[in-house]
Amino acid sequence: MNTFSQALSKEAQARLISVVKNGTYELRSVDHSQIAGKKEGVNLVLYKSGKLVVQGKGTQEWIEFVLEPEILQSSATVSSISSEATSAPLPRIGIDESGKGDFFGSMSIAAFRLTEDLMGDLDTLGIRDSKRIKSDDKIATIASALRAKALGNCEVLVLTPETYNSLVKKMGSVNRVLAWAHATVLENLLERHPDTQHAIADQFGPEHQIQSALKPKGKAISLIQRHKAESDPAVAAASILARDAFVKQLNELGELAGCRLPPGATHVRPAAEDIVKRAGPEILTRIAKTHFRTTRQVLEATGYDPALLGTPEPKTWKKR
Predict the structure, then answer these.
(1) pLDDT on residue 216
(2) Which CATH superfamily is domain 83-252 in?
(3) How far is 256 from 260, CA to CA, in rounded Å?
(4) Has residue 125 got a pLDDT over 60?
(5) Where are the domains of the chain?
(6) Residue 91 pLDDT > 80
(7) Gap between the Cα atoms of 209 and 178, Å rounded
(8) pLDDT at 129
(9) CB-CB contact of 44 with 37 (8 Å)
């Protein structure tokens, strides 16, 4: 079982308690704890000493999408990152995605080709992992500046919920869809910059998945896959582009749904249930990632068969 532990500051402890109390966690009673909760793939305990312990197969994803951006609120910038640490010379392409952990909205994948000339510009713009930037307006401003400075070095692929849901069903897993999308943006950028010899991406599954999805140009380069790849400035720039595309699409889908769609995977059920009551269950295929367990929960809560959109039917479900 994956296990992670870290001592939290008083401020981070307060944020964690708020996230657990207001999220979709099942609260537990644990001796000497301030709060303890569990959800699919994650069990966490915050002890009175301030030590946080997290266990479960979803630990790494929880750290990336909840702990770091929402609780620790880290803010490392390019100036504090060594470009040498990646072992990938310049120019190199960074690849990242946004929306993977969000129930509503698209999954957006971006690639950015970083050159020696652009390093100073990224530092001036304050480029860092997009999950550490709280303001959507700031994300949009930085993404716009990146495109203005080096449009030919930017590549973005937006998988709308309808496309994403179809691909997950066809390919059988989110990681296979991710691998195909990473390979696609990389290949598209290499078409414009065939002299690029190096790329770096976050490792989200077995290393062979992206490699097997690559076409001839992609197979010819050196591709590094590692955890925390967003610490590399090329990947951080890609994460900004991907997040900007995700937010813009989320806003457009909100107009379709007739309300603001909340990001993330917590606090989304009330909005989803209200939308289904107004527009019917099929709208979820157009605005949400239907393989999420949330889909089943929303359908059950609104009186629809949880298996209606291809979600597994819980054993105890009874039609209202």
Answers:
(1) 80
(2) Ribonuclease H-like superfamily/Ribonuclease H (3.30.420.10)
(3) 10
(4) yes
(5) 3-72, 83-252
(6) yes
(7) 9
(8) 61
(9) yes
Alpha helices in 23-160 (DSSP H): 59-62, 116-125, 136-150
Could you tell me the two tokens for 115?
Answer: 């050159």
- For residue 184, pLDDT over 60 is answered with yes
Contact, 247 vs 136, CB < 8 A? yes
Instruction: Say whether 73 sits in a helix, a strand or coil.
Output: coil
Q: Is 213 in contact with 200 (CB distance < 8 Å)?
A: no
The identity of residue 230, as a single letter, is: E
Mean pLDDT of the chain: 86
Count Cβ neighbours within 10 Å for each residue of 2-38 and write b for 16 or more, e otherwise. Answer: eebeeebeeebbebbeebbeeebbeeeebeebbbbbb
Domain boundaries 3-72, corresponding CATH code: 3.30.310.10
- Contacting residues for 21 by C-beta, under 8 A, at least 6 apart: 27, 35
Q: Which residues contact 237 (CB under 8 A, 6 or more apart)?
A: 94, 112, 114, 122, 127, 146
d(CA 198, CA 287): 35
Residue 28 to residue 43: CA distance in whole angstroms? 10
Contacts of residue 266, Cβ cutoff 8 Å, sequence gap at least 6: 19, 22, 23, 24
